[in-house]
Amino acid sequence: MNSFLAQRHFEETCVICEIQKPKGIHLYTSFICTDCEKDLIQTNTSDPKYKYFLQKLKKINTPEIFS
Ligand SMILES: [Zn+2]
User: Fold this and answer.
1) What's the 4 CA to ligand 1 centre distance in angstroms?
2) Ligand 1 midpoint to CA 67 (Å)
3) Fewer CB in 10 Å around end: N or C, the chain?
4) Which residue, 62, 40, 60, is CA-closest to 51?
């Protein structure tokens, strides 16, 4: 992961909104922008939107990270 830190200024594509953003978090090998991260945190698990997020996150090989 050190190579990621060295390239912090380099924009990465968010796994959820699929837009290149300069800021965000790394979840294993995937990048989630700060906007989507906030959105995800604020979304209730009963909200249909939450399932949408989970489907996106399924691309990442990390089962049940947010459950
Ligand atoms: Zn995003």
Assistant:
1) 17
2) 20
3) C
4) 40
Q: Ligand 1 centre from 36 Cα, in Å?
A: 4
* 10-residue averages of pLDDT along the chain (67 residues): 58 93 89 94 94 83 57
Pairwise CA distance, residues 13 & 50, whole Å: 20
* Beta bridge mates, 13: 20
d(CA 46, CA 32): 21
Q: How far apart are CA 23 and CA 8, in angstroms?
A: 8
What would the two tokens of residue 5 be? 């830190």
> For residue 60, how far is its CA from the centre of ligand 1 (angstroms)?
14
